[in-house]
Amino acid sequence: MSEKIKVGILGATGMVGQRFVTLLENHPWFELVTLAASAHSAGKTYEEAIGGRWKMETPMPEFVKNMVVKNVADVEDVVKDVDFVFSAVNMPKDEIRAIEEEYAKTETPVVSNNSAHRWTPDVPMVVPEINPQHYAIIEHQRKRLGTTHGFIAVKPNCSIQAYTPALAAWQEFEPHEVIVSTYQAISGAGKTFKDWPEMVGNIIPFISGEEAKSEKEPLKVFGHVDEAKGEIVPFDGPLKITSQCIRVPVLNGHTATVFINFGKNPTKDELIDRLVNYTSKAAELGLPHAPKQFIQYLTEDDRPQVLKDVDYEGGMGVSIGRLREDSIFDWKFVGLAHNTLRGAAGGALESAEMLKALGYITKK
C-alpha cells in the first residue's frame, strides 16, 4: 500500500487540470488517484475525455490514460479514495464557491487554483515563499465550516507573480506607489495558438477582471491574520497599485513592467541584493517544487525574455531585470513568471506541499 498522500483533480480536463496531471507524475509525496470533470466527460477514460484537446508540450502520461473520469458533482464518489483535491473547475464563481465548500465539508482539503474564494476572509491566499503564515487562519475556517480536517486554500492570480515577489523582497524600503502593466500569455486564458489563431500577431488591451486582481490581491498577500476577527486583513498601509493588463501573442509567460516609489531611499545595489538573497520557508523546508533561488536578477539590457527565461527554476522561479532609476518614479523594472507553472498549477502544487509540511494535509 502506497504511503503517499492520495490526491484528486477537480476539473482535470482543462488546461490547468492537464498541467496538474503532468506535475503529479512521479511526485515524491502525492499520488494522483482520481480525476473528475463535468458530466460530459464523466464515465470516459481520461484519454477519451481529452480527445484532441491535450494542450501540454509533453505527451499525456501513460498512467492517467485509462483512468475513468468521475463526475465532479458526485462529491461523495470523488472523495472516497482521496486525502485531498486540487480544484481547477470551470464554473460560475458562485457555483465554484459552493462546490469547493461542499468538498471541504466532507473533511477533504481543497487546494484551489480558482479565484472564487480569494476574497473569502478566512480562506488563505498564499504564495509559499511570501506569506505561509496565513495558513494559521485555517483553524478559524474549520470552525465556520464545522470540520476538523477539511478546508479551502487558494493561490493568487497568475499575473501578480511577475512583480509581487519583488515587492516582498523590498518591503523594508516601504514601497507605496506602484504602476504595473502586465503582458499576459494566451495560456492564461486556457488557450493555445491552435485554438485561438486570431491571437497570432495580435494584442488585446483587455482581460476581464484582471486589473482588479492585479491591484488588490497583493494587498491580501501582504496582509495579516487577525485572530480576534478570525480572518485575513489586507495590508492597510500606504501601498497603492494601479494596473493595465494586456493579452499578447505568447504561449507561456506573463511579463510585467513596473514603476515604483519607496518611502525610503534604497540604492540599486541594495535592491538587487534583496532580490538575489531573498530566502523563504519554502526553500528551507525543501519542498519538492520550491525553487532553490526564488528570484533571479538579470543584468543584460534585453532580459528577462520569455524564450530565454520563462523556464527558470523549472518554471517556478521569478526573473527580474532592467532595474533602473526613473525620471518620475524612483525606480522601474521588468518581471517575468511562468503563468501556468509558478502562476497556476505549479503554485497550487507547491502550496499543497507547504500545507503537507506544516501538517494541514495528511492521510485521512
UniProtKB/TrEMBL annotation:
> Which InterPro entries does the record associate with it?
ASADH-related, Asp_semi-ald_DH_pep-lack, NAD(P)-bd_dom_sf, Semialdehyde_DH_NAD-bd, Semialdhyde_DH_dimer_dom
Annotated Semialdehyde dehydrogenase NAD-binding domain residues: 6-138
Pfam families membership:
Semialdhyde_dh, Semialdhyde_dhC
Give the originating organism.
Answer: Bifidobacterium angulatum DSM 20098 = JCM 7096
Protein name per UniProt:
Aspartate-semialdehyde dehydrogenase
In this protein, the active site sits at 158, 254
Q: Which UniProt keywords apply?
A: NADP, Oxidoreductase
UniProt key word Lipoprotein: no
Under SUPFAM superfamilies, the record lists: Glyceraldehyde-3-phosphate dehydrogenase-like, C-terminal domain (SSF55347), NAD(P)-binding Rossmann-fold domains (SSF51735)
| Entry's EC annotation | 1.2.1.11
Please cite one Gene Ontology biological process associated with this protein: threonine biosynthetic process
